Fold these 4 entries.
Entry 1:
Amino acid sequence: MNEVVFKTLKQKDFIVKSFVLRVATELNLSLSDTILLIYLSNQEVPTLDIENIVLTTYLKQDQVLESFQKLVAMGLIESKVEKNADGKLGEVISLDNLIKNVTQDITTGIKKKSQIDIYNLIEEEFGRGLSSIEVGIIDNWCKEFDPEMIKEALREAVYNNAKSLKYIESILFAWKEKGYKSVNDIHKGMIEYSKDSNTKDLYDYNWVDED
């Protein structure tokens, strides 16, 4: 029998904790993200042991790293330096934030879900996954703008065939300068533009390069 297969079959099965499934479902995590959370939640002292994670989960190395960066950026897990049993410092992965996510109040939960929806929408429109830096940029948007405004800016970017975070951000700050605080404000502004310019298409207005 193949040695790798033999060692794999001898390993203990993972225990899939219900709170991990709850978080994965509510936040629409990818399969790779969920598998990594299950792996970490089964470790007595979770660490980012890439070689062992690849061996035991069948994920590829780039999938592990991408999911790890995404989960950190989302605030579900955290990398910390702690002393081990021998008194030596080492890097461990804290799941405290993941557990807190389960016990958080419903308002925060809804806000977090809306934020994840935005990640998923942008990934779908861009046709690729987001880097940890991009997740951080979107996270900052969510702190400053209404989630529906971000979705509207994404629609504008897609309509103008400008699928980039820089373009979306330019639209958001153009709206901010105009004092828009909701999608309703944006639509009112576009309707006024439509009346003034006698055009039928509300999305013809170029928020980024306006005079």
Entry 2:
Amino acid sequence: MSSFFDQIIKKILPSSPNPQQPLVTELLKRTEVQQNAYKEWLTDQQHISLLESVAKAYFLKQEKLTSDIQIHLFASPYANGFAITYDESSMGKQDLMFLCEHFKDIILTLNYELKSSQREITDKGNFVNTVERYYLKPEARQAILENKRIDQLYGNLLLEYVLVDEKPSYLKVLSTIYADRTFTPAQDFNDLIQILFRLNE
């Protein structure tokens, strides 16, 4: 039978981690090395072929056809999005992270503001899960000051880059919309896709 002190120690230092409780929750901030590598990725036009491949996979998936890149679609009345699975045969190790940054930068040009940047690291028992998350919302201050309906644009946008044991796993883009009179009707998610994939240029 364990002593009173053993029970206290177990409560303070549990022998096995809670797979739902993050070990680390911190502000997501890219290092200078990562920022420079991202700029080089854009300058060298390395993102163009990746975006073309992802766009092709997205539209093939809509037609229930397969492609070289594995992509998952989410569609409902109040949430739409997609997730790109990392494939080391067709992607560089940092491509999904850079793509996440690229999508964030594009969205910020669309009258959105970055509401949170967060990294969570969770010990799942047999692997370590890392989620790097950006949450963006339409700019609302001016509409509130003028007592007007808020233009919700494409809804609230979530970008999640997930790593398993520090290896890329997938990138998710998710839009959730409001359906009340405080907000204007949301714009078509397919229009956002055109912008993210550079198909409107």
Entry 3:
Amino acid sequence: MPFKKLKITPRQARYYLFFAALLIALPSIANMYKGHEGKFLVATSAVEGSPFEETVIYLSHHNFWGARGVVINKPIRKAKVDHDFPEKKWYVHLYEGGPVNVEKENSLLLKAEELPQGFVVTPVDDARKAQPDLIEVFEKNQNKNPLRLFMGYSGWGVWQLNREIARGTWGVIDYDPSLMFRTKSTRVWKKAMERVSEEQPAKEAGA
């Protein structure tokens, strides 16, 4: 039995073309969304008792597909590190970056004057590929100033972080270099929470 030809009206054809174009463009559109990238997440009382209690996270990436950042106020001593990794021999100050891949993935905070905030947080593997000469200096322990090295990272899946923020799990504040570099780790969360408390009434008034 011969198949009947599917009849498509001009209007239906326009709909099909529109949705086909939308599906093709979706990945690019999703990557254009930067969310809260470059800002600080401040843990609220909703995470008490969890690894994120009283943490402040610098959000290095945030798009439609997920988010990633590192905790900036949890320094650790080398003596407390049970496992070993090559970067431990560099001149570094160690931090708990987050609960994901603690034993496998470490990130460096590298100063870069050409960037808007003056630094970048990048996985060590990416730094090895992009700047092998710089890594060689670290390997020889010739870096005169201590590097900030984050063990592991904090990560969220598709739209997960946005839902947590909507539920009040995190406060969000703009990046502040004084919190990142000039405030004692023991005071970072308290000062960040003060900022959240100051900004929250303004948001409610504008709602």
Entry 4:
Amino acid sequence: MLSRVLLYGLRCIIGGVVVGSLWLTGLILFTRIIPSSPQDTTSATDGIVIFTGGKTRLKEGLALFEQKKAEYLLVSGVNPVSTFPESVEKMSERSHITLGYDALDTVGNAEETAAWAYKHQIKTLRLITSNYHMPRSLFELHHLLPQVQILPHPVVGDNFLKPKWWFEGETLYLVVQEYNKFLFALIRRPFEDLQGFLLAREKSQ
């Protein structure tokens, strides 16, 4: 009996070490796909979308839109109590700016963006969000807009510009948190696709 308990405990320890090693390896790989700067700041696109979450994102997106880098602009996930809409009302191209209030998370951002892109027949899109948030945002958007060319335009915080940013506790926490959300998205999406397929199949019968 004791030997079985010890064997079970040993298996649990080995399993934990393997899972932990895989998670850590994935985290290291994840940090390597976090962009450190926008690759293209000059090309024009049909639309620009800003996933809200910081003033820098809004400032960058509005500046590019005012430079005529896109015909349409979507600000997804606007806080209803924000004063940002008041400043947008004063812009000359207000009719081409959409303020989205429905999105509460990244999935909601992607869904809001997809509906807007279909409405305006967007074929090329510049995505503005924080650099650590870019991998998951692209994953969600590519799934809903497979035919749209998406140009990532990351906003990079000062901490990420440091040579050894992983020593910054707050920054490392953001990356680990985002990595876990990214893993969950990779797991969640196939199940949702399967569920949608089964529902569609059931309705067709």
